Amino acid sequence: MNTGYPPSLSEPLAVATSTATLLIVDDLPENLAVLGGLLRDAGYRVRAANSGPTALRYAVQEPRPALILLDVMMPGMDGYEVLDRLRADPACRDTPVIFLTARADVTDEQNGLAHGAADYITKPYQPSIVLARVKTQLALKRAQDDLKDQNAFLEAEIARRMTENERIQAVSILALANLAETRDPETGNHILRTQTYVRLLAQHLKHHPRFAAFLSGRNIELLARSAPLHDIGKVGIPDNILLKPGSLNIDEWRIMKTHAKLGSDAIERAEGASGDPLPFLMLAKEIAHWHHEKWDGSGYPDGLKGEAIPPAARLMALADVFDALISWRVYKKPLSFAEARGVIAAGRGTHFDPDATDAFLTHFDEFVAIAERHADN
């Protein structure tokens, strides 16, 4: 069988009024000539291939064909194999294919459609039918491409707005936290350090059996984002108590301890105003309310014990105490890193969650590096 075809059909034919490029595939040169002439006269750009391998090469060359008209019965690689390979290639898996065949058997048509053909045209060609079906498939492909572009735009816009909202959210949280800290100017970079400690501690515990269910990647991010609000309730503590240079008496200490619930109540009111529960506010509320609880139940405000203390609050408790130990206060000098490590180790199983303590001690040098990197001036 002659598998050659006229040289004029081996490259794109003359461009008419349409910008759509069509690829026709047939092993008979007379079929290529007839079909190519019909489509060219209708205003399409046409490329022609006389074999399956040639068709696969042309299918990925620029300009990419908007539609492929593919003969089923060809020597070597038949139309079914060509279509299977096209569908396996991400570059052309969405290019519509119309099967061309001299066989009008319903089973063949079903088989072609099952392979992913968009339509089926039998020989001999009826020009009006060929042009109508080509036009229909091109219109459908344009509609699909427009929809895909629109969906991609919408997805990008949603992602952009989510990123912007999260950035606004993070900035707002830090603004509120820093506003609270202005009432207590000696805390310096306390917010930044504790936030970074909490993130690091969570990263080291995320595969631990007791923490794995909670410390997903998303929850770690929300936990770190919420951490700066742990002492937001201090805005409700009078200056004479909050800024007192000496030790607090019993009544003053009772008032100071109310900052935990004041903070969680404020966050709860904000949560209620939002209309829908926000995950980061839920964690912020837990942290603010219970980060002064102790593993043995001797903490405040509710005397929670062990696993009854939310995990976010347990991690915050350790981070908060460590930073307080190594920081200057008007009523105390900072401990050395070694001394602070000893205090944390001594609090294992009494003040702090045992496994969280072990993670802290194992990676102690990393916490020291954070403290040094964000040290107060």
Model description:
This protein has helices at 29-41, 52-59, 79-88, 106-114, 127-181, 190-205, 217-226, 239-242, 250-256, 259-274, 279-290, 311-325, 337-346, 354-362, 364-373, and strands at 21-25, 45-49, 67-71, 97-101, 119-122. With 377 residues, the protein is an alpha/beta fold. It folds into two domains: 7-152, Response regulator (Rossmann fold); 182-373, Hypothetical protein af1432 (Orthogonal Bundle). A five-stranded parallel sheet has the order 2-1-3-4-5, with helices on both faces. Helix 2 runs parallel beside helix 3 (79-88), helix 7 (217-226) crosses helix 11 and helix 10 runs antiparallel to helix 11. The longest helix has 55 residues, at 127-181. The radius of gyration is 35 Å and the shape is elongated.
Briefly summarize what is shown:
This protein is α/β, with parallel strands linked by helices and 377 residues long. It has two domains: 7-152, Rossmann fold; 182-373, Orthogonal Bundle (Hypothetical protein af1432).
